[in-house]
Design a protein that fits this description.
It contains 5 helices and no strands. The chain is an all-alpha fold and about 160 residues long.
Amino acid sequence: MDHLLACHGRIRSFMALARAIATREEATDSLVRDAARDVKRYFTEALPRHAADEDESLRSRLTGRDATLDAALARMTAEHTTIDTLLADLCAHCDALVANPAARRARRTALLALLDTLDARWEAHLGLEEREVFPVLRRLDPASCEAIRTEVRARRSG
């Protein structure tokens, strides 16, 4: 659970970095380029592993315990798809800013609107997982916990 919560912290940090790209007037083009590259890399490389941890490792072990949890797990997976669509738009902005960081002023309104939508989706989604899904992990048997840890490590090593 600590690993999953740390991932949520990184999601929030990279969303804050994306917002800084749009709002920090004093940022140099080099900083904007690097930040946009880092945001895109996180959301296209690290985040899919986190989503797989939840959709594959957690969901398979938690489904069928009770109807409320099953509904939360179904919502979690559905929200991953919705968020992925929004993140594709964010990554397109990042690509454009890597190519031309000075364009951030022209993209500011659209980027901020997208970030507002994403922030709202993320907070609802992360809150759902933190309130309704992750606490159940404390009640899993040791073998299931070890299997999850093994799968999580394998996603990051290969």
